[in-house]
Amino acid sequence: MAEEREELTWELFGSAGRELARTVADDGYAPDLILSIARGGLFVAGSLGYALDVKNLHVMNVEFYTGVDQRLDLPVMLPPVPNVVDLTSRKVLIADDVADTGATLKLVRDYCLDHVAEVRCAVIYEKPQSTVKCEYVWRRTDRWINFPWSVLPPVVQRSGQVLDA
């Protein structure tokens, strides 16, 4: 029998993003900027940005997962890395799709800590083994998650070849 997975549809993601934003707002946290962890965090940051009326969105590219349940030993920041001057003395909300091991969130949060006024994390999903306990979580699960943006294979491979549907 196949392992049960958490299924997030686009429609459910819309509700999750609004509910996550409501949690942030109800807590009284008003971020000056949202720092998205690419790639899955881009969707979350956009949703939070609209719902919290924050237009100042930044992106941090981090490589960690290389496939389903396959990852590098440590997450690696990829260029361009946000300039800390843009973060200085700001209240930052880090947005990502999932806190799985917590390693990616820890890397980004630690990068911010010495420069920002305050930093908090918001994720759609948090897993029990995450070393970072996020301030804002829509749902907790120990399952593998099928996200609507990554469940289908790429339309093209990096070599530029079109894949069969």
TrEMBL record:
<dbReference type="GO" id="GO:0016757">
    <property type="term" value="F:glycosyltransferase activity"/>
</dbReference>
<protein>
    <recommendedName>
        <fullName>Phosphoribosyltransferase domain-containing protein</fullName>
    </recommendedName>
</protein>
<feature type="domain" description="Phosphoribosyltransferase">
    <location>
        <begin position="11"/>
        <end position="151"/>
    </location>
</feature>
<keyword id="KW-0808">Transferase</keyword>
<dbReference type="Pfam" id="PF00156">
    <property type="entry name" value="Pribosyltran"/>
</dbReference>
<keyword id="KW-0328">Glycosyltransferase</keyword>
<dbReference type="InterPro" id="IPR029057">
    <property type="entry name" value="PRTase-like"/>
</dbReference>
<dbReference type="InterPro" id="IPR000836">
    <property type="entry name" value="PRTase_dom"/>
</dbReference>
